[in-house]
Specification:
The protein contains three helices and four strands; from the N terminus they run βαβαβαβ. It is α+β, with helices and mostly antiparallel strands and about 100 residues long. A four-stranded antiparallel β-sheet has the order 2-3-1-4, with helices on one face.
């Protein structure tokens, strides 16, 4: 059993959902988040643009799934990222699960 965590800019939300389904990962959760890079975070901490919504609209996905499905999804996301013309690739990490109920 693995925990996979995926982040993507909001414009790729539907593509990531499609890739999850293509990898046969039918059970996952997602949530809208704000993504920050270091320069944006420095502006927030210095008090600039107080009251304005900060960050980049992004999406977080996570799923507990089998290792074989994770490998398939990793290949699909890698292929997807290779075709992008942006500096905001879909990012994915895999965390091993020691115990679960």
């Amino acid at each position: 059993m693995k925990l996979l965590i995926i982040t993507a800019v909001a414009q790729f939300q539907h593509e990531v959902s499609r890739l999850l389904k293509e990898a046969k990962i039918d059970s996952f959760s997602s949530s809208g988040i704000d993504g920050y890079k270091e320069s944006t975070l420095q502006l927030i901490n210095s008090g600039w643009f107080v009251g304005e919504r900060g960050g980049v609209r992004s999406h977080l996905f996570f799923s507990f799934t089998e290792e074989e499905k994770v490998e398939k999804l990793m290949q699909l996301i890698k292929a997807f990222n290779e075709k992008l013309e942006t500096d905001n690739p879909v990012k994915m990490v895999v965390v091993p699960i020691e115990k679960y109920i």
